[in-house]
Amino acid sequence: MTRLLLVLLLVLGMAAPAAPAQAASAPQPVASGLAHPWGIAVLPDGSALFTERDTRRIWLAVPGRPARVIYTVREAVARGEGGLLGIAIGPDYARDQRVYLYYTTASDNRIAYVVRGSAARPRVVLSGIPAASTHNGGRIVFSPDGFLFAGTGDAQTPARAQDPRSLGGKVLRMTKDGKPVRGNPYGSVVFSLGHRNVQGLVFDPAGRLWASELGQNTFDEVNHIQVANYGWPNVEGRSDDTRYRNPAHVWAPSEASPSGMTYVAGSLYVAALRGQRLWRLELSGAQVTRASALYQGTYGRLRAAMRSPRDGSLWLMTDNGSNDRVLRIARFP
Ligand SMILES: [Ca+2]
Hints:
The protein is mostly beta strands. The chain has helices spanning 2-15, 20-23, 93-96; strands at residues 28-34, 37-42, 48-52, 57-61, 68-72, 84-89, 98-104, 109-115, 123-129, 140-142, 148-151, 170-174, 190-193, 198-203, 209-213, 220-225, 249-251, 258-264, 267-272, 277-284, 287-294, 302-307, 314-318, 324-329. A hairpin with a 4-residue loop joins β3 and β4 (57-61).
Protein backbone atom coordinates (compact mmCIF):
# COMPACT_ATOMS: atom_id res chain seq x y z
CA MET A 1 0.00 0.00 0.00
CA THR A 2 2.77 2.41 0.98
CA ARG A 3 4.69 1.50 -2.14
CA LEU A 4 1.60 2.09 -4.27
CA LEU A 5 1.12 5.51 -2.71
CA LEU A 6 4.74 6.36 -3.35
CA VAL A 7 4.43 5.38 -7.00
CA LEU A 8 1.24 7.41 -7.31
CA LEU A 9 2.93 10.47 -5.78
CA LEU A 10 5.89 10.08 -8.10
CA VAL A 11 3.65 9.89 -11.15
CA LEU A 12 1.62 12.89 -10.00
CA GLY A 13 4.78 14.83 -9.32
CA MET A 14 6.15 14.12 -12.77
CA ALA A 15 2.88 15.08 -14.42
CA ALA A 16 2.44 18.33 -12.53
CA PRO A 17 3.15 21.35 -14.74
CA ALA A 18 6.17 23.36 -13.71
CA ALA A 19 5.45 26.91 -12.59
CA PRO A 20 8.58 28.95 -13.25
CA ALA A 21 6.91 32.31 -12.57
CA GLN A 22 6.24 31.29 -8.98
CA ALA A 23 9.72 29.96 -8.40
CA ALA A 24 11.50 32.88 -10.07
CA SER A 25 12.57 35.87 -8.03
CA ALA A 26 11.17 39.33 -8.84
CA PRO A 27 12.75 41.07 -11.85
CA GLN A 28 14.98 43.95 -10.76
CA PRO A 29 15.79 46.87 -13.08
CA VAL A 30 19.48 47.06 -13.94
CA ALA A 31 19.13 49.97 -16.37
CA SER A 32 16.23 52.23 -17.30
CA GLY A 33 15.52 55.32 -19.39
CA LEU A 34 16.76 53.53 -22.50
CA ALA A 35 15.44 53.65 -26.06
CA HIS A 36 15.29 50.38 -28.00
CA PRO A 37 17.89 48.20 -26.29
CA TRP A 38 18.38 45.28 -28.65
CA GLY A 39 21.18 42.81 -27.99
CA ILE A 40 22.62 41.44 -24.77
CA ALA A 41 25.54 39.19 -23.91
CA VAL A 42 26.65 37.99 -20.50
CA LEU A 43 30.36 38.16 -19.71
CA PRO A 44 32.29 35.46 -17.84
CA ASP A 45 32.17 37.51 -14.62
CA GLY A 46 28.36 37.70 -14.64
CA SER A 47 28.08 41.29 -15.82
CA ALA A 48 26.41 41.99 -19.18
CA LEU A 49 26.98 44.08 -22.26
CA PHE A 50 23.93 45.34 -24.10
CA THR A 51 23.33 47.44 -27.18
CA GLU A 52 20.98 50.34 -27.79
CA ARG A 53 19.77 50.37 -31.38
CA ASP A 54 19.45 54.03 -32.34
CA THR A 55 22.05 55.70 -30.08
CA ARG A 56 24.42 52.89 -31.16
CA ARG A 57 25.81 52.67 -27.67
CA ILE A 58 27.22 49.62 -25.90
CA TRP A 59 26.44 49.57 -22.20
CA LEU A 60 28.05 47.63 -19.38
CA ALA A 61 25.65 46.45 -16.69
CA VAL A 62 27.05 45.16 -13.42
CA PRO A 63 24.36 43.96 -11.00
CA GLY A 64 24.03 46.42 -8.14
CA ARG A 65 25.72 49.30 -9.95
CA PRO A 66 24.46 51.91 -12.45
CA ALA A 67 24.90 50.80 -16.05
CA ARG A 68 27.38 52.85 -18.06
CA VAL A 69 28.24 53.42 -21.70
CA ILE A 70 31.57 51.92 -22.71
CA TYR A 71 31.56 52.41 -26.51
CA THR A 72 29.59 54.05 -29.32
CA VAL A 73 29.47 52.32 -32.69
CA ARG A 74 29.59 55.45 -34.86
CA GLU A 75 29.85 53.26 -37.95
CA ALA A 76 26.25 52.07 -37.44
CA VAL A 77 23.31 53.98 -38.92
CA ALA A 78 19.92 53.96 -37.22
CA ARG A 79 17.31 53.45 -39.94
CA GLY A 80 13.89 52.11 -39.02
CA GLU A 81 14.43 48.74 -37.37
CA GLY A 82 18.12 48.88 -38.28
CA GLY A 83 20.96 50.26 -36.17
CA LEU A 84 23.18 48.63 -33.57
CA LEU A 85 21.59 45.21 -33.09
CA GLY A 86 23.13 41.93 -31.91
CA ILE A 87 26.11 41.40 -29.60
CA ALA A 88 28.03 38.27 -28.66
CA ILE A 89 31.13 37.51 -26.61
CA GLY A 90 33.87 35.96 -28.74
CA PRO A 91 34.82 32.33 -28.06
CA ASP A 92 38.38 33.33 -27.10
CA TYR A 93 37.35 36.33 -25.01
CA ALA A 94 39.63 35.43 -22.12
CA ARG A 95 42.59 35.80 -24.50
CA ASP A 96 41.50 38.42 -27.07
CA GLN A 97 38.57 40.33 -25.42
CA ARG A 98 36.67 40.35 -28.70
CA VAL A 99 33.04 41.45 -28.57
CA TYR A 100 31.10 40.83 -31.77
CA LEU A 101 28.43 43.15 -33.12
CA TYR A 102 25.79 43.12 -35.87
CA TYR A 103 24.87 46.55 -37.16
CA THR A 104 23.24 48.39 -40.02
CA THR A 105 25.08 50.93 -42.18
CA ALA A 106 23.82 53.16 -45.00
CA SER A 107 24.40 50.31 -47.46
CA ASP A 108 24.21 46.95 -45.65
CA ASN A 109 24.26 45.01 -42.39
CA ARG A 110 27.66 43.98 -41.06
CA ILE A 111 29.30 41.82 -38.46
CA ALA A 112 32.36 43.24 -36.76
CA TYR A 113 34.22 42.96 -33.52
CA VAL A 114 35.59 45.46 -31.05
CA VAL A 115 38.15 44.71 -28.36
CA ARG A 116 36.96 45.34 -24.83
CA GLY A 117 38.84 48.21 -23.28
CA SER A 118 40.11 49.52 -26.62
CA ALA A 119 38.83 52.62 -28.40
CA ALA A 120 39.87 51.15 -31.77
CA ARG A 121 37.18 51.17 -34.44
CA PRO A 122 35.24 47.97 -35.20
CA ARG A 123 36.95 45.42 -37.44
CA VAL A 124 34.48 44.16 -40.00
CA VAL A 125 34.49 40.39 -40.54
CA LEU A 126 31.44 40.20 -42.83
CA SER A 127 29.67 42.85 -44.88
CA GLY A 128 27.05 42.78 -47.63
CA ILE A 129 24.10 41.48 -45.63
CA PRO A 130 21.09 43.20 -47.24
CA ALA A 131 19.59 46.04 -45.20
CA ALA A 132 16.35 47.99 -45.29
CA SER A 133 14.16 49.91 -42.87
CA THR A 134 12.73 46.56 -41.70
CA HIS A 135 13.66 42.84 -41.85
CA ASN A 136 17.32 43.23 -40.91
CA GLY A 137 17.62 40.14 -38.73
CA GLY A 138 20.45 40.95 -36.34
CA ARG A 139 20.96 38.22 -33.75
CA ILE A 140 24.43 36.62 -33.47
CA VAL A 141 25.57 33.69 -31.36
CA PHE A 142 28.63 31.45 -31.11
CA SER A 143 28.25 27.69 -31.28
CA PRO A 144 29.86 25.46 -28.65
CA ASP A 145 32.61 24.70 -31.19
CA GLY A 146 33.37 28.39 -31.72
CA PHE A 147 31.61 29.23 -34.99
CA LEU A 148 29.63 32.42 -35.40
CA PHE A 149 25.99 32.13 -36.46
CA ALA A 150 23.91 35.09 -37.57
CA GLY A 151 20.21 35.46 -38.31
CA THR A 152 19.47 37.79 -41.22
CA GLY A 153 16.32 39.16 -42.84
CA ASP A 154 15.02 39.45 -46.39
CA ALA A 155 15.33 43.27 -46.18
CA GLN A 156 11.90 43.63 -47.78
CA THR A 157 12.78 41.58 -50.88
CA PRO A 158 11.27 38.16 -50.10
CA ALA A 159 12.88 36.41 -53.10
CA ARG A 160 16.31 36.93 -51.50
CA ALA A 161 15.44 34.30 -48.91
CA GLN A 162 15.42 31.58 -51.60
CA ASP A 163 18.55 32.88 -53.39
CA PRO A 164 21.65 31.09 -52.07
CA ARG A 165 23.83 33.91 -53.45
CA SER A 166 22.22 36.50 -51.20
CA LEU A 167 23.07 36.80 -47.50
CA GLY A 168 19.51 38.00 -46.82
CA GLY A 169 16.84 35.75 -45.34
CA LYS A 170 19.40 33.23 -44.04
CA VAL A 171 21.07 31.76 -41.05
CA LEU A 172 24.81 32.23 -41.65
CA ARG A 173 27.69 30.18 -40.27
CA MET A 174 31.24 31.50 -40.27
CA THR A 175 34.52 31.42 -38.42
CA LYS A 176 35.20 34.19 -35.92
CA ASP A 177 37.01 35.94 -38.78
CA GLY A 178 33.97 35.79 -41.05
CA LYS A 179 35.10 32.96 -43.32
CA PRO A 180 32.85 30.11 -44.54
CA VAL A 181 32.93 26.93 -42.49
CA ARG A 182 33.74 23.64 -44.20
CA GLY A 183 30.47 21.82 -44.73
CA ASN A 184 28.45 24.94 -45.43
CA PRO A 185 26.15 23.92 -48.33
CA TYR A 186 27.10 26.59 -50.90
CA GLY A 187 30.75 27.15 -50.08
CA SER A 188 29.81 30.57 -48.67
CA VAL A 189 28.73 31.60 -45.17
CA VAL A 190 25.12 30.64 -46.00
CA PHE A 191 23.94 27.80 -43.73
CA SER A 192 20.13 27.62 -44.02
CA LEU A 193 17.80 29.53 -46.30
CA GLY A 194 14.16 30.49 -46.68
CA HIS A 195 13.88 32.79 -43.65
CA ARG A 196 11.95 36.05 -43.48
CA ASN A 197 13.51 37.78 -40.47
CA VAL A 198 15.51 35.83 -37.88
CA GLN A 199 15.97 37.79 -34.65
CA GLY A 200 16.50 35.00 -32.13
CA LEU A 201 19.23 32.33 -32.00
CA VAL A 202 20.28 29.99 -29.21
CA PHE A 203 22.01 26.64 -28.79
CA ASP A 204 20.59 24.07 -26.41
CA PRO A 205 22.94 21.88 -24.35
CA ALA A 206 22.64 19.06 -26.91
CA GLY A 207 24.08 21.42 -29.53
CA ARG A 208 20.83 22.05 -31.43
CA LEU A 209 20.49 25.52 -32.87
CA TRP A 210 17.09 27.17 -32.45
CA ALA A 211 15.92 30.28 -34.27
CA SER A 212 12.91 32.54 -33.92
CA GLU A 213 11.50 34.15 -37.05
CA LEU A 214 8.99 36.93 -37.53
CA GLY A 215 6.21 35.96 -39.93
CA GLN A 216 4.30 38.22 -42.25
CA ASN A 217 0.62 38.04 -41.34
CA THR A 218 -0.19 34.56 -40.21
CA PHE A 219 2.59 32.58 -38.57
CA ASP A 220 5.67 33.42 -36.55
CA GLU A 221 8.01 30.46 -36.23
CA VAL A 222 10.58 28.74 -34.07
CA ASN A 223 12.81 26.46 -36.11
CA HIS A 224 15.41 23.84 -35.31
CA ILE A 225 18.16 24.99 -37.66
CA GLN A 226 20.04 22.56 -39.86
CA VAL A 227 21.25 22.79 -43.46
CA ALA A 228 17.78 23.09 -44.99
CA ASN A 229 15.28 25.38 -46.68
CA TYR A 230 12.74 26.85 -44.25
CA GLY A 231 10.27 27.95 -46.90
CA TRP A 232 9.89 31.72 -46.94
CA PRO A 233 8.37 33.28 -49.05
CA ASN A 234 6.81 30.20 -50.64
CA VAL A 235 5.55 28.95 -47.30
CA GLU A 236 4.75 30.81 -44.07
CA GLY A 237 4.35 28.44 -41.12
CA ARG A 238 3.73 24.75 -41.76
CA SER A 239 3.13 23.02 -45.06
CA ASP A 240 3.20 19.53 -46.55
CA ASP A 241 5.69 20.61 -49.22
CA THR A 242 8.64 18.32 -48.60
CA ARG A 243 11.10 20.81 -50.11
CA TYR A 244 10.74 22.90 -46.99
CA ARG A 245 11.49 22.19 -43.35
CA ASN A 246 8.53 22.74 -41.06
CA PRO A 247 8.81 24.93 -37.96
CA ALA A 248 8.92 23.32 -34.52
CA HIS A 249 6.42 25.88 -33.27
CA VAL A 250 4.17 28.58 -34.73
CA TRP A 251 2.19 31.45 -33.26
CA ALA A 252 -0.01 34.22 -34.56
CA PRO A 253 2.10 37.40 -34.83
CA SER A 254 -0.37 39.20 -32.54
CA GLU A 255 0.54 36.89 -29.65
CA ALA A 256 4.25 36.65 -30.38
CA SER A 257 6.38 38.57 -32.92
CA PRO A 258 9.40 36.82 -31.44
CA SER A 259 12.86 38.32 -31.08
CA GLY A 260 15.66 37.25 -28.71
CA MET A 261 15.57 33.81 -27.14
CA THR A 262 17.48 31.80 -24.60
CA TYR A 263 17.53 28.31 -23.11
CA VAL A 264 16.87 27.40 -19.48
CA ALA A 265 16.41 23.92 -18.04
CA GLY A 266 14.69 22.12 -20.88
CA SER A 267 12.81 25.09 -22.30
CA LEU A 268 13.32 27.90 -24.76
CA TYR A 269 12.32 31.33 -23.49
CA VAL A 270 11.35 33.71 -26.29
CA ALA A 271 10.90 37.48 -25.93
CA ALA A 272 7.75 38.65 -27.73
CA LEU A 273 7.32 42.15 -29.11
CA ARG A 274 3.65 42.47 -30.15
CA GLY A 275 2.79 39.60 -27.82
CA GLN A 276 4.26 41.54 -24.85
CA ARG A 277 5.20 38.43 -22.94
CA LEU A 278 7.96 35.89 -22.41
CA TRP A 279 7.06 32.61 -24.08
CA ARG A 280 8.21 29.36 -22.57
CA LEU A 281 8.50 26.51 -25.07
CA GLU A 282 9.14 23.17 -23.39
CA LEU A 283 11.38 20.88 -25.42
CA SER A 284 11.62 17.17 -25.86
CA GLY A 285 14.59 16.62 -28.15
CA ALA A 286 13.87 18.66 -31.28
CA GLN A 287 10.14 18.90 -30.52
CA VAL A 288 8.28 21.68 -28.77
CA THR A 289 5.80 19.94 -26.48
CA ARG A 290 4.11 22.81 -24.68
CA ALA A 291 3.87 26.60 -24.86
CA SER A 292 3.02 28.90 -21.97
CA ALA A 293 3.53 32.59 -21.26
CA LEU A 294 5.12 34.61 -18.46
CA TYR A 295 4.95 38.33 -17.62
CA GLN A 296 2.11 38.83 -20.11
CA GLY A 297 1.48 42.57 -20.50
CA THR A 298 3.72 43.35 -17.50
CA TYR A 299 6.58 45.11 -19.26
CA GLY A 300 5.17 45.85 -22.70
CA ARG A 301 7.18 44.68 -25.69
CA LEU A 302 10.09 42.37 -24.88
CA ARG A 303 13.14 42.39 -27.15
CA ALA A 304 15.48 39.83 -25.66
CA ALA A 305 16.00 37.30 -22.92
CA MET A 306 19.41 35.96 -21.94
CA ARG A 307 20.36 33.32 -19.42
CA SER A 308 23.58 33.98 -17.54
CA PRO A 309 25.77 30.87 -17.73
CA ARG A 310 27.66 32.28 -14.76
CA ASP A 311 24.97 32.48 -12.09
CA GLY A 312 21.71 31.24 -13.60
CA SER A 313 20.09 34.66 -13.63
CA LEU A 314 17.86 35.72 -16.52
CA TRP A 315 18.21 39.11 -18.20
CA LEU A 316 15.21 40.65 -19.96
CA MET A 317 15.02 43.75 -22.16
CA THR A 318 11.96 45.79 -23.04
CA ASP A 319 11.53 47.53 -26.39
CA ASN A 320 8.79 50.11 -26.04
CA GLY A 321 10.83 52.94 -27.56
CA SER A 322 11.10 55.12 -24.46
CA ASN A 323 11.96 54.45 -20.84
CA ASP A 324 13.03 50.97 -21.84
CA ARG A 325 14.55 48.79 -19.18
CA VAL A 326 16.98 45.97 -18.71
CA LEU A 327 15.74 43.68 -15.95
CA ARG A 328 17.57 40.93 -14.14
CA ILE A 329 15.86 38.01 -12.46
CA ALA A 330 18.41 36.68 -10.01
CA ARG A 331 16.80 33.26 -9.69
CA PHE A 332 15.08 31.75 -12.72
CA PRO A 333 13.06 29.64 -12.93
CA1 LIG B 1 9.35 28.76 -42.45
